[in-house]
Known about the structure:
Elements: H1 7-31, H2 42-45, E1 63-69, E2 74-80, E3 85-90, H3 99-107, E4 128-143, E5 148-151, E6 158-161, E7 171-178, E8 186-191, E9 196-199, E10 208-211, E11 218-220, E12 228-233, E13 236-241, E14 248-250, E15 258-260, E16 269-271
Antiparallel strand pairs: 1-2, 2-3, 4-7, 4-11, 4-16, 5-6, 7-8, 8-12, 9-10, 12-13, 14-15
Amino acid sequence: MAQCPNMLEDLKSCYSENEEYASAIDHLSLNQKSFYDTNYDPLHENRVDKPVSPNPYENSEESNFTLEDSSDSSAVVLTSAHGEVLKKRRLSLNQTMSNEDLEAIANDSEEEIIEPWSVPYSFQSNLKFKYQRSIKKGAVITDAMHQSLIRESNGQHLKAMHVVDRKHEVKFDIDGYVSTATRIRPVTLKISKTQLYVCAQEEGQPVLLKEMPETPRVITGNDVNLVFFWEIQRNHNFFRSAANTDLFIATKMTGPVHMAKTLPSMLDFQIS
C-alpha cells in the first residue's frame, strides 16, 4: 500500500532551509560595504566650504591607464570603461610613475586636463589676447636639473646653468591674458625691471628677448609669439608657444634656452 506523503514534514523542511538562507543573506549584508556608502572621503570633508566641480570620471564604472609613447611625446592616459579619454598627463624627463601617482591622477579634481587641440596650429597670427592682470612678479624659474635661467653675454638670449651667486639669476614678471580661443591660461614672461619679453622662435632656435615700449594691452598678429600657454601638472610647469602649439620653452645641459617638442630637451620648470 502506497504511503501518503507527510505534508507537514515537507513544510517544516522548506521553512528550515529558507530560514538558513535568509540568515546567511543577513550576515552577508552586515559584513558587506553598501553600494550607497554614507561615508565621505576626507578630501571632501576638507573642502566643504569650497566649490567642487563635477568629475566626469568619478562615476565611471571602470577606468584604465595606458601609456602613449610616440616620437614627439609621452603621456599617461586615463580612459573610461567605454574608451573615452578622461585625462592625460605628459611625462617629463626621467619622470617615474608609481601606483600612488596614478591614483592621484584619477582622483585629483583640480588638476588641469590636457585637451587635444581641435585644429592644427601653425604660427597663428589670427589670435587675440587681452591683458587681464599681473600674476607673479620676481619669479625665479629653474629647469628639471635645477639650473637657473640667466642672460647670455649677447643680451638677446637666455641660457640655463647652475649658479653660485644668485644675483645672476633672471627674475621674471608673469602677466595673465584672456582669449576666447582657449581656456588654458595665456601668459607673457618679462624680465623684471625691464621691458624685455621672452619671444618664441621656430623649433630648435633660441628664444629671443624682445623689447616692448610698454606692457601690451592687446596682443595679436606678429606679436603672438610673446604669448605662452602656462600648463601646470602637479609641480611641473610647461610653457607652450601660442604661435606654434607643438613647441615648448626648453633647456639642455649646454646651449641657450630654445623651443622644442620633446626629449632630449627638458620642457618642465619649477617656479619660486
